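User: Modeling request: complex.
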Amino acid sequence: MPELPEVEIFKRHVDATSRGRRVSGVVVRDRKMIGKLSPAQLQARLKGVRLAASRRHGKYLLIGLGKAGWLALHFGMNGALRHFGKPGDDPAYDRLRLDLGAGHHLAYVNPRRIGRVALVADADAFIADEGLGPDALDGRFRESDFARALAAHRRDIKSALMDQSIIAGIGNLYSDEILFQARLHPRRRADRLEAAEVKRLFAKMRRVLRSAVRCGAGSEQMLERLPKDFLLPERRRGGRCPACGGAVATLKLGGRTAYYCPRCQKPER
DNA sequence: TTAAGTGTTGCTCT
DNA sequence: AAGAGCAACACTTA
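Assistant: Request completed. Predicted assembly structure:
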């Protein structure tokens, strides 16, 4: 689930429920998620610290802790962040819990335990160290940057869109939607797109990601709320293209399944 | 029961 | 050297 739109929703959730609060307790329920840090170390460094800021870069959420640095969260395949009131309302698969004072708890949930929580000194340095490209929704990321980045890769466009070092934030689901909206076949080569196609792709990338955030990415209701021309609700076996009514097809790319409409998204001649 | 799945990393091969 | 392909990670659900 967590691609850029879902992580953006987590960020807003933190802002609405937890930002400004101080950490009164830290419960590590799964050491695996905190890497080299020991639970005692994490506890010592977080206790008493204020959740002062939040940032998102691609699929990472960064929570600013003032002088204590930043908490960097990655959600893997199906992680999430949930605020709750009573300690007893602890969600299932809660791997790390921050107690934030009377009636406020923030849980990092991750059923499959793919993902991680790290404590880092500087957010920008972390982003650079991870080798992340520009965030897909960052206003400073221009179409000309996008065009230059794609031209540098002799690779299929779907893999390029999902490569976090080229653009940060897009995964399997949203890359399918973006390519569908841009009417581009997932196997088109990134460096062979025409200028008009790159322009279209850039605009659709923004529209798709913004729409997903607006419709409450990750929620049950998102599929019903999405614009009617979106492929996402039909992204399944037996799905029908919202544009032409034809059968949705799949192909394998780098071990992932791409869903697309073979009629609306033609391969390169 | 088997397989597939929203992500990333690391390895091999070309 | 870039890029493709695959396994591994861990666990749930169809």
